[in-house]
Each structure stands twice: as C-alpha cells, then as structure tokens.
Hints:
Chain A is an alpha/beta fold. Chain A folds into 2 domains: 10-256, Type I PLP-dependent aspartate aminotransferase-like (Major domain) (Aspartate Aminotransferase, domain 2); 259-378, Aspartate Aminotransferase, domain 1 (Alpha-Beta Complex), CATH 3.90.1150. The first copy, chain A, has 14 helices and 12 strands. In chain A, a hairpin with a 4-residue loop joins strand 5 and strand 6. In chain A, helix 11 runs parallel beside helix 13 and helix 11 runs antiparallel to helix 14 (370-378). The longest helix of chain A has 22 residues, at 259-280. The radius of gyration of chain A is 21 Å and the shape is globular. The mean pLDDT of chain A is 96.
Amino acid sequence: MGPGPSDVNPRVLNAMARPTIGHLDPEFVRMMDEVKSLLRFAFQTKNELTIAVSAPGSAGMETCFVNLVEPGDKVIVCQNGLFGGRMAENVRRMDAEVVLVEDEWGRAIELQKLEDALKNHPDTKIVSFVHAETSTGAQSDAEAICKLARKYDCLTIVDCVTSLGGTEVSLDVWGADAVYSGSQKCLSCAPGISPVSFSGRAVEAVKARQTPVRSWFMDLNLVMGYWGEGQTRAYHHTAPVNALYGFHEALVILNEEGLQAAWERHMQNHLALRAGLEAMGLSLIVPEKERLPQLNAVTIPEGVDEAAIRRKLLQSFNLEIGAGLGSLAGKVWRIGLMGYASNAKNVILCLSALEAVLSESHAPINKGLAVAEAYRVYG
Amino acid sequence: MGPGPSDVNPRVLNAMARPTIGHLDPEFVRMMDEVKSLLRFAFQTKNELTIAVSAPGSAGMETCFVNLVEPGDKVIVCQNGLFGGRMAENVRRMDAEVVLVEDEWGRAIELQKLEDALKNHPDTKIVSFVHAETSTGAQSDAEAICKLARKYDCLTIVDCVTSLGGTEVSLDVWGADAVYSGSQKCLSCAPGISPVSFSGRAVEAVKARQTPVRSWFMDLNLVMGYWGEGQTRAYHHTAPVNALYGFHEALVILNEEGLQAAWERHMQNHLALRAGLEAMGLSLIVPEKERLPQLNAVTIPEGVDEAAIRRKLLQSFNLEIGAGLGSLAGKVWRIGLMGYASNAKNVILCLSALEAVLSESHAPINKGLAVAEAYRVYG
C-alpha cells in the first residue's frame, strides 16, 4: 500500500510466467496488436500511436520529451510536486528553455498562473504537467489545462502514471497530445512497462523536427515501425516478451471490470480509508476537491518517528506504506489504494495496523473508532 | 532456436511470477546487491559500476554511448554486421563524429584496419565494437582490440549481448571500459534487462564530462545513486521488480553451472550441430576460427524459399530459427544454441526437422546422415 508498485493481480503474475516466445513470432505480434487496442480503451483515445514503451515510466516520460522537444524550444513546466521537477530536468537535457510555473506541493495546478505564463511567453511550444502527482496525492484538472494550452497553440505533455485506471483519463476529450503512464500503479501490473499515446498533432510535430531525435532507443520514428500493423513490422529492439504478457493481462482485467466501475471502486475505498483516518484524528494534506483517491498523503502526527512506524508496519504486518518525498519528506505518509490493492480488506488492515503501531508509540490518536467508521462507508 | 530471445529456463519463469514487492523494500535491495555481485562474476570483473539497466539491450548500448560520448568527440566504430551500424547511429545522435572501420559481414574485425584508423585519427576518444555479432555469428578478438585501443589511449565500448554466458567474456583481462549485454541470449532469461559494466577509467570519463548526459533515464550519475550500496540508495526510477527476480535467478543458474562448464557445453552442442549440417551438405558462412558456437549462420541452399522453410518449421515443429539480417537477408538462416536451449535434444530436433522440411521442398541435401554425425560428436 505504498505509492507503487502496487500489489500485482495473481493473473498477471501467472501470465508473466508463460514460456517466452520470439518477439517476431506471429502470435506475439497479434498480442501486441491487442495491447494497442486495449490501451486505446484505457486511455479513451483513437490515437493510432498508442503503444507500450519497453521500460519503466521514467522512460515513457523521456520518450515524450525527447521526441517533441528540440534545442532552443520553450517549454512551460507546471510543477506542483517531485515529478514536475523531472519534467524540467528532461527539457534542460534537450538544450531547450524551461519556464517553471510553480504551485504548492499538495495542491492542484492553478489555471490562472499557467495562463499568465502563456501570455508572458507567447513563443511557448509545449505545456507539460502531471495529472496525478504521486509525490503529493493531488490531482489537477487535465481537461482545463489541455484546453488552455490549445488556446495558446501549444502542445501538451501529460503524466498519467498514477491516474490511469484509477481516476478518469480521457485523452480525446481532453485534447491531450503526448501522454505517458506506468504499468505498476492502478493497472496492477509489475513495473517495467510505460504506455504512451501521441495525438495526430504530436506525431506531425515529431515528423517535422529539424534535428534528429537524440535517443535511438526512444526514437518514435523507429518505434512506430516496430509497433506498426501486421507484416510491415520492422525490427527495432527485442521486446520484453514476458513483461508484455503481464501487461496484456492487466489491460484485459481492466477491460473486464470497465473503466467507470474501476474509478468508482477506487473512490469508495478512498472514502472508507479517509473516514477511518479522520476518526483516528489524522488528516489528509490535499484539499478534498483535489484529492487522488488512489494515493492518500496523510499528515504525520507531531513527535512521531515516521520511519520507525513504517518499519514496524513492514515487519509486523508485511505492510508497506510510502514516505514523503522532496518538500514533504518527514511530513506525510503516502498510502496507496491502487488497482488490485484498492479493496475493503486492505483498507481495514491498514487502519487497524496503523492504529496498533501508533498506539504502541504513544502517538496522540483516537482509538477504537477507525474500522467502524470505514465500515460505515461500505454500508 | 532463433537468434534470441532463447528458451527461458522454467526456474526463471517461476521466479518472475513471485509476488511483486516494493523497489525500495530492504529484501529487494538485498537482491539488487546480489545481482551486482553475480554480474561481476559473469563478466569476470571487479568493476564497481556493474549493474542491470531496466530495459532491453538497445538501452544498455545507449547507456554506454550517451554517458561516454560528448558532442564533437571522435569515435571509431568497427562494423562487421548490423549491430555495429547501430553503434554508429548512437554516436551520430550525440553530435559526435563517427569513423567507420568496416569488415565483411560474417567475418571477425581485422586488427590491422583498426590500427590504421587509430593512426590516421590520433584524436579518437573511443573505439567501439561488437564482440559477438548476432546478425552474422562471427566473434572478434575482444582482448586484442581492447589492448590495441589502450595503446592509442582510447576508451572501449564493447557489445557482449550474445557472448555473455556462451563464450569467454573477461572484462578485466581484456581491459574493456564500457560493456553491455542482454538478458535474453545465453543467460536464458526473458528479454528486457541489459547488464552493463563500467571500468574505473570509464567512470572517471563520465564524471569529467563537460556537458550534461543527454538522457535522464540513462544518466549513470543518477543510476549509480540508485544501485549504490545499502542505505545510501537514492530513488531514481521504479525498477522492473519481477524482471529482476528472473534475471537474478538466471545468474544464480549460471553460477551453479560455472562459466567454464557453460562455455564447453555451448561449444560441444555447436560442434554437434555443425557435424549434422555438414553431413546434410549445408555449410556455415563464418570461417571456423571466428565462429560463435551459440549462433550458427547457415548458407541457404540455392532455389530454396527460405521464409517458407522457417514457416514450416514453426508450424509443424513449433521450432523457430532466425532469418538473415541486412546484407545477409535471404542468404542465411541463423540457428541459435543459447543458454538453456543449448542441449543435445535441441540439436537433434533441429537437424531432423530441417532435414524433413528441406526434403519435402526438394532441396538438394544429403538425407539420413545428419543425426548420426551429430550423435558421434557427443560420443
């Protein structure tokens, strides 16, 4: 129950143990086609270039930046947590210019600040932002940000690592241009695969580049050939066959449940966890309307050795919760309720275990109420 | 029995299906430490920076180039097959200068040509070459090439994708500087992981760079922090936990067998396959002294529809062999005997199946001799 990797569905684990076949075998090629179409469903898009990058989410992020950003370009990066900072770092390594629009960690991105920056920098090519900040548990209004960027004729790069499968991600409704996610959050697959989707506009921008893409491994001109239709497939790299078996199975599971049902499940378990935490006297740092149901940043009570609590949870209950990152280090715990792990059993376990360990440490909490309050939500 | 991914050992498949734990969990960190020490054994090196890149071999290649090559650098690339060409492509994307030293596809790299190039280009910073060319089945003398490069004060980048675990790879004896390999060849692990090892000299060169490393995902300054010792570990990206379970198991299996025993096994099965092929009247394109035992490039008899033969082998016997690449497309088949798949059963199956399918196609081969000749080698 950390910030990911989340618990992996046993069906996905079993899929990864299937015998490895060749990455050019017709059966494997058919599975890649299914992965593309299942991903279009998950992202809610018709984007043809919707594929799984053969590496973790950080490589998916870099795939978006390395293909769209050229030396000298101006990119507005909205930063309201750790992962916005990484986006800025990616832009700088392309010898491009970063305009940083900063918001408080734990808050959504403020639209007015972004619009001011767009007005002050009319030569901006790209706006990039994180939809669901894994470092803080805050969710921003992706649709409004994408539409604002379009109004100023900018492309968008959107981080959906923690949102995909947990809260609504609708690329075509948003009008997003380049989007990446990860396998190990609400899709409940093992880490190591990063789905990306590029709009027609974004593909045109890649094709219209003045300079070569700086990465061979991530060059979409080459990767597109590999993920092309049927027999035209050109060998690029050796796909991680077994990881893709698992990823395919994870997408099949999401498809079986349905997007709406998955989002509702995440919300209900979040509300139950919140009820229990509040009954204990703990609070979430993100304002209610900006909260991610799948990642709950909990304020650490004063005087508590936060690392010792996490260690005890792991040792006594085999339960992992996450530490704070960056400016929230030492201030919050991050409790994930992602994908397969977002269920009532985990909510109750987490509340009970946390109450036991905090009580033993003489932390100032209300005892004996949390589980009942959580249970009431499931009513 | 293609050029890889090779058949994966069932122990490795089972390992990949273990429950996913956090990539910062103390148990996982301990496993990463074991992976490092097992990799040092496999590479025969004391290099501290010996790690597993969280992506396929192409990303391991790029990790070497993106960290060592700066804009304006001069790099000699020895090309005797497809993968040398990729090295040159990597160099160009760093805005560095390539000096191509070309050899015939299917032959080892000629030392004299390389020395001539080193004399003509005294400002060369790096010599890069492929130890075992997967596209042709030729092996070059890595020790002699590394020593020659050192004589001219150059760093070396060495591709050991297909050699590691199959033929001798001895980084410290060679004096190699930056080396990458893949999980899916003679280590018999699923594709998706790329081990790399950097000498002290190479690490110094990375630290002495004048310009930032162009990739965030592959920047060894950051990756080193993640693979550092024990508690100092800094979060970089989310490791592909299950893929690393499998990779760890594959290295344990190699350690149990022993390097010398693994190399001898690969050689014996190669000799048996060769005896059978020659008895059939087929020949290998690589001269005997330059042959890779784990990858056998077989000349296609005249008038044979090579793709049809491969298709029939797959359909009738569930047996994959590889097509030729680049200038060898349509001229050779590539038969792999790698890792777990390098065994007498596979040699006999391949010879029998090939003989049956070629006979049915009225190809001009000698019948009824191949298996007996192969069997004689096992004595």
